[in-house]
Every structure is written in structure tokens, then in C-alpha cells.
Specification:
alpha/beta, binds 1,4-dihydronicotinamide adenine dinucleotide, N-(1-d-carboxylethyl)-l-norvaline Dehydrogenase, domain 2, globular, Rossmann fold
Length: about 280
């Protein structure tokens, strides 16, 4: 399967990062969002990120300019008719992703691969929204995309071997590491990471230790570069709660019960860095 022309739908935090990763690796990228303002913000984010890489001498100015030049912004989904691989990174709402897949089915030939960057929705359910479900797969990038090495490749039960192999090979061309997981709630990284953060929150809830000490213990005793509560604040406690609810509802296993304190923090609007206050102040 030839993968040369890339489409990225959604120019937010992840879509901008994904478009940049492909463009930096030499791919031509078409980037789409629903408003010119969102596209402009996405392109500005990419410009800032490339400038930072140049300042850190991880990239030359010439290469950064060439990468930026490979990205074309559009508001028109029909422009995606000639794409080989389309990655969607729109809002985490099944109905929105389903509508996009339906539109792409109409616009694109059957060979086009549709990848979703969803962090919690069932890939099998997303694939079922396509007339050609075998072409649908998950490409779960991590934030910030320019820095993070992993792409979790998620196989829906419908995904074909050829599509899986083509996506794994493409990830390698991005200079990133692909690891394949079968479609399952939270995939692997979030299923392991988020319950650990939830358990750290339970330690605070049950007065086992202070937030400062829980984080210090995990840094000093488990060699984690960042404590779990500081990490929860960075990710956003609302996102941590969303993932716990997906795991809890999906597996119907009480071990994934969201911490009552996590719910209270979200109810209070103490969501972490983005609101200036979570387990720590910013
Ligand atoms: P975001 O809110 O920053 O960006 C979403 C973008 O999608 C917005 O610019 C919005 O205007 C656009 N959009 C909405 N509907 C659209 C449509 N019909 N067509 C085109 N564009 C549309 O969200 P973010 O954080 O980039 O997340 C996007 C996806 O990536 C979600 O599925 C999320 O679960 C996933 N994800 C997020 C991570 C993160 O750390 N933020 C990490 C890994 C995955």
C-alpha cells in the first residue's frame, strides 16, 4: 500500500502536532478544520513548535520552512479525495467521528486508510461506521506529538492485516515507535497509567499521605520522573475522570471505580494546570 499523501482532520492540540510530524518527515499534508480561525490557530501552533525545535538546534531553519511548506490548510473535506491515509483528531465525540467517516466513505476511494486518534472510543464501533470497516484503524499519538516517541496502533476486529502493516510502516517513517494493541477500553497506556493516578488520588482521599508526599514517594521510590498527582494535573483531572469512567463502564469491574475525591475536584473546577489549581497550584 502506497502511503504518500496524508490528510489530517482537526487542527487542535493533537491534529496540529500530527500534521507537523508528517510534514517534518517529508509527507505532503492537507489539514482541515471547521473554521478558518481553528485552522489559523493550528498553523500558528505548528509555526511555534517548529521555531522551538530550531531554537533547540533539533532542526535547521531550512528544514522547518520546508516542513511548514508541505502543509496545506483547507475547509473543504472534498479536497481529501486523493489522500492515501487520513488521520482524524477531532473532538472526542463518537457522533462527530461517525459523521466524518460517512463523509469520507463518499469522497475517498476504497483504498484510503482512515485512522482515528481517539483516546477512549471503541475502534471497532468507529470502524463499523464505514462501508469499508477493514480500512479503519487507531493511531493514538501522545501529547506533545513532536516529543513523544510512541504511537499506539489500535486494531479494530475489522482492521485488515494490510492496513495494519501499512500504518506500522508509516509510523516508523515518522521516526516514532509503533506498538500494536487490540481494541480494548483504554488500550494499554491509559489503562495502566490512569488507574495509577486514580490510586494516588485515593491515597490523598484516605489521608494516607499528603499530595506532596505521594508524589515524592513515587519519584524517589519508583523512579518516576514526575509524581502521579502532578501528572494528573498536567493531563487535566477531567480527562483522568473521563478515562476512569470509560474503564469502569467498559470492564464493569469495581477496581476501576473513579476516586470520590477525583469527582469532587472536577465538580469544584479544580482541573489541574489548565485552571491554575488541581492537587497543586500553578
Ligand atoms: P482539540 O479540542 O484541541 O481539537 C479538536 C479540533 O477538532 C478543534 O480544532 C475543532 O474545531 C475540530 N473539529 C471539531 N469537529 C470537526 C469536524 N467535524 N471537522 C473538522 N474539525 C473538527 O482536541 P485534541 O486535544 O486535539 O483532541 C483531539 C482528539 O485526540 C480526541 O479524539 C482526543 O481524545 C484525542 N487525543 C487527545 C490527546 C491530548 O492529550 N489532548 C492525546 C491523545 C489523543
Amino acid at each position: 500500500m502506497k502511503i504518500e499523501k496524508i490528510g489530517v482532520i482537526g487542527a487542535g492540540v493533537m491534529g496540529a502536532g500530527i500534521a507537523q510530524a508528517f510534514a517534518t518527515s517529508g509527507y505532503r499534508v492537507l489539514l482541515r478544520d471547521i473554521s478558518q480561525g481553528a485552522l489559523d490557530r493550528g498553523l500558528a501552533t505548528i509555526g511555534t513548535s517548529l521555531s522551538r525545535l530550531v531554537a533547540k538546534e533539533k532542526m535547521t531553519q531550512v528544514d522547518a520552512d520546508a516542513a511548514a511548506g508541505r502543509i496545506t490548510a483547507t475547509l473543504t473535506l472534498e479536497d481529501f479525495h486523493d489522500r492515501d491515509l487520513i488521520v482524524e483528531a477531532v473532538v472526542e465525540k463518537f457522533e462527530v467521528k461517525k459523521a466524518i467517516i460517512g463523509d469520507l466513505d463518499r469522497i475517498c476511494p476504497a483504498r484510503t486508510i482512515f485512522a482515528s486518534n481517539t483516546s477512549s472510543l471503541s475502534l471497532t464501533r468507529i470502524a463499523a461506521a464505514s462501508n469499508h470497516p477493514g480500512r479503519v484503524i487507531g493511531m493514538h499519538f501522545f501529547n506533545p506529538v513532536a516529543m513523544m516517541q510512541l504511537v499506539e496502533v489500535i486494531r479494530a476486529i475489522q482492521t485488515t492485516d494490510a492496513v495494519n502493516a501499512a500504518v506500522v510502516a508509516t509510523v516508523a517513517k515518522l521516526g516514532k515507535e509503533a506498538k500494536v494493541a487490540r481494541d480494548s477500553y483504554g488500550f494499554v497506556v491509559n489503562r495502566v497509567l490512569i488507574p495509577m493516578i486514580n490510586e494516588a488520588i485515593n491515597c490523598v482521599y484516605e489521608n494516607v499521605a499528603t499530595p506532596e508526599d505521594v508524589d515524592a514517594m513515587m519519584k524517589l521510590g519508583a523512579a518516576h520522573p514526575m509524581g502521579p498527582l502532578a501528572l494528573g494535573d498536567l493531563i487535566g483531572l477531567d480527562i483522568v475522570l473521563d478515562v476512569m469512567e470509560v474503564l469502569h463502564a467498559g470492564f464493569a469491574d469495581p477496581k476501576y471505580r473513579p476516586s470520590p475525591l477525583l469527582k469532587q475536584m472536577c465538580d469544584a473546577g479544580y482541573l489541574g494546570r489548565k485552571t491554575g489549581r488541581g492537587f497543586f497550584s500553578y
